[in-house]
């Protein structure tokens, strides 16, 4: 049975429609360091040459840019790009950070160090190991006192993060920042917790319809989402956040429908009205 | 916000299994902390350990999720008739209309630590997890959410919130939004965190762990005691419980904020804490003076308690009874939000307002709201604060229906 939006419930409670305008998009993958590059890739263009090996998020001070964990770097890069595209001040936006694993290289470091010399744990790596590290650096860098959350739902992480962003709009937030990212796995963990390459994307979503902006309408369904395909999946399909790619492929190509894995036997159907 | 009915709740901590064990220990001022005897027990500190987890493996059909954290989740779920209450909402609303929003800080990273401690070398000399440890789900933050989803058969939105020590307070806010938006009619919220090397040695590396049982708001406090716990609450749209709600417990408000200050140190003026508390009061539509009990984050680190006391005295009248219960349970990290929300619910239901355990000399910097002794008093509203690394803050307001 579908949890269809927009229809009254038996007991009279209203089921609101989950919809939003997309005000801004950020994207980063190896070889595709911007949303424009990702759109060109979906349209069939060759990959740009000489792209950076890792993002250099301008929100951080130069020394922090180099020191930041890769997961934090990619999250902050796409978050700022989405805010810029939306023309929104990052300090004004509540945020939802969605990541399947957080930073697997730090998990590998923590577990490897604990196995040989637990007293040697680095305090900085420890506080960077929290799942909300990127959210923390973002709010600190942006001077943002708005709520920030960090969620995970295994291979359904993106759909569940999108759902939380949409219900925040329903609860009255004028606009919400959604940031999704995962980093490469490392060490013995990499055989079990699989994730390759660095991938991030961000959306600034707003409640009100806006001229020139695509609009999405989402419903949870009892169905299986197809395995992501297309040029973005060919490039970044080994990253743990790859289940988000069908939405970005559709946004880039002008398709009006994307189906996102939302849990066992569940999918989030996203209808897109392009601007 | 429209109030949400809390139709069932439970907690399992170092104080014991289930609600009554918590209430009894609070009333008797009997703490659950002990000298560190966990794993290598090398750190000189005190811990709030849940007894019996080593002897309580998951049932065979849950073998995929086997780990200390999910054992504690399973143990906690079996207390206070919670599984029956979950079955009830699953029947009433349909499994796909019940959301599952759980909080954890470290999930089952203890299992990943164990995998690294027991690595095997293959023919090529590569280090590999032992075969029994090659279970991807227990090595992700969603280990808890995935386990509880399968153990309860719920099919609504299912997500793990991992914002360090505010995680299982924020689950109430997220569940309230899912219900308000019509995505779900009810939600199982909660959180579980278990002792592991990462948190013991991690907090030790930051110099935040005391060698004594923690002393929240004591002038000589010198750090936290780590603990483990699991807890759950069932939230339902109040209109869905027509005629059965008189005097029933309710979630009345939530407030969330960011400090925008530092990854592991609170804002010196408690900016984020004040924003979260004020937002929760506003959403509940009540004045600060209507709050009868506030369960503080109160970790017993010098910084947290000073900042939190300042934020409380800026918002609340002197008559407020506010305390940290971490002297009983230790800091249960990602489970602190749910455990201390349940202590707030016990305060509402039983009129049992806990004071502080282990603390004896009040910090003169703290206001008169900070109370060391237990008090018996009927109250109408209770609050809980949970603050986490990254400057992540959440406050909750609970009340009773008219």
Catalogue the unreliable spans of chain B. Answer: none
Q: CATH homologous superfamily name of chain B?
A: Thiolase/Chalcone synthase
| Separation of the first and last Cα atoms of chain A | 31 Å
Indicate the overall shape of chain B: globular
**What would CATH call the architecture of the domain at 18-208 in chain A?**
3-Layer(aba) Sandwich
Order of helices and strands of chain A: EHHHEHHHEHEEEHHEE
Order of strands in the sheet with the most strands of chain A?
Answer: 3-2-4-5-1-6-8-7
Please tell me the overall pLDDT of chain A: 93
Per the CATH scheme, the topology name of chain B is Peroxisomal Thiolase, Chain A, domain 1
What is the chains' assembly state? heterodimer
Largest sheet descriptor of chain A: 8 strands, mixed
Tally of discrete structural domains of chain B: 1
Strand content of chain B: 15-25%
- Report the structural category of chain B: alpha/beta
Order of helices and strands of chain B: EEHEEHHEHEEHEHEHEEEHEHEHHEEEE
């Amino acid at each position: 049975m579908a949890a269809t939006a927009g229809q009254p419930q038996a007991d009279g409670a209203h089921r609101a429609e989950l919809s939003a305008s997309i005000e801004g998009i950020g994207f980063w993958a190896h070889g595709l360091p911007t949303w424009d590059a990702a759109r060109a890739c979906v349209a069939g263009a060759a990959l740009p040459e000489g792209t950076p090996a890792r993002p250099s998020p301008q929100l951080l001070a130069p020394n922090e840019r180099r020191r930041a964990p890769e997961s934090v770097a990619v999250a902050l890069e796409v978050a700022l790009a989405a805010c810029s595209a939306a023309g929104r001040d990052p300090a004004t936006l509540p945020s939802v950070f969605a990541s399947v694993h957080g930073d697997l290289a730090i998990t590998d470091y923590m577990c490897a160090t604990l196995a040989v010399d637990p007293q040697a744990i680095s305090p900085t790596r420890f506080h960077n190991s929290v799942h909300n590290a990127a959210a923390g650096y973002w709010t600190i860098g942006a001077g943002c006192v708005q709520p920030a959350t960090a969620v995970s739902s295994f291979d359904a992480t993106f759909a569940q993060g999108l759902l939380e962003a949409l219900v925040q709009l329903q609860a009255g937030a004028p606009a919400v920042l959604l940031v999704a990212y995962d980093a490469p796995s490392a060490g013995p963990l990499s055989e079990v917790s699989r994730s390759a390459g660095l991938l991030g994307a961000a959306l600034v979503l707003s409640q009100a319809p806006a001229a020139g902006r695509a609009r999405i309408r989402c419903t949870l369904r009892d169905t299986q989402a197809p395995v992501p395909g297309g040029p973005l999946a060919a490039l970044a399909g080994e990253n743990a956040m790859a289940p988000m790619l069908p939405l970005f492929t559709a946004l880039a190509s002008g398709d009006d429908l994307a189906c996102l894995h939302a849990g066992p036997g569940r999918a989030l159907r996203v209808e897109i009205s392009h601007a | 916000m429209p109030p949400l009915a809390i139709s069932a709740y439970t907690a399992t901590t170092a104080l014991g299994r289930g609600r009554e064990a918590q209430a009894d220990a609070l009333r008797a001022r009997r703490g659950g902390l002990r000298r560190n005897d966990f794993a290598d027990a090398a750190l000189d500190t005190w811990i709030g350990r849940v007894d019996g987890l080593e002897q309580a493996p998951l049932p065979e059909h849950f073998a995929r999720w086997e780990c200390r954290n999910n054992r504690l989740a399973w143990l906690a779920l079996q207390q206070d008739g919670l599984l029956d209450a979950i079955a009830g909402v699953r029947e009433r609303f349909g499994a796909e209309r019940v959301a599952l929003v759980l909080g954890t800080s470290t999930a089952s990273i203890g299992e990943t630590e164990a995998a690294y401690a027991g690595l095997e070398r293959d023919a090529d000399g590569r280090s590999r997890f032992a075969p029994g440890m090659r279970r991807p789900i227990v090595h992700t933050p969603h280990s808890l959410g995935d386990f509880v989803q399968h153990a309860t058969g719920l099919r609504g939105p299912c997500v793990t919130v991992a914002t360090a020590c505010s995680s299982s307070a924020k689950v109430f806010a997220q569940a309230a939004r899912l219900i308000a938006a019509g995505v779900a009619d009810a939600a199982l919220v909660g959180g579980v965190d278990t002792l592991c090397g990462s948190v013991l040695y991690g907090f030790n590396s930051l110099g935040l762990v005391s060698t004594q049982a923690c002393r929240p708001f004591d002038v000589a406090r010198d750090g936290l005691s780590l603990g483990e716990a699991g807890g759950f609450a069932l939230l339902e749209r109040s209109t869905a419980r027509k005629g059965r709600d008189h005097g029933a417990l309710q979630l009345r408000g939530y407030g969330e904020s960011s400090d925008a200050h530092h990854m592991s140190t609170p804002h010196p003026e408690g900016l984020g804490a004040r924003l979260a508390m004020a937002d929760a009061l506003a959403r509940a539509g009540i004045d600060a003076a209507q709050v009868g009990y506030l369960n503080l984050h109160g970790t017993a680190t010098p910084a947290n308690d000073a900042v939190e006391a300042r934020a409380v005295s800026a918002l609340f009248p002197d008559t407020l009874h506010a305390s940290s219960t971490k002297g009983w349970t230790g800091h249960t990290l990602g489970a602190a939000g749910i455990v201390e929300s349940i202590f707030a619910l016990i305060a509402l239901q039983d009129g049992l307002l806990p004071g502080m355990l282990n603390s004896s000399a009040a910090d003169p910097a703290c206001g008169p709201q900070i109370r060391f002794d237990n008090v018996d008093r009927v109250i109408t509203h209770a609050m809980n604060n949970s603050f986490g690394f990254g400057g992540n803050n959440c406050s909750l307001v609970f009340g009773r229906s008219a």
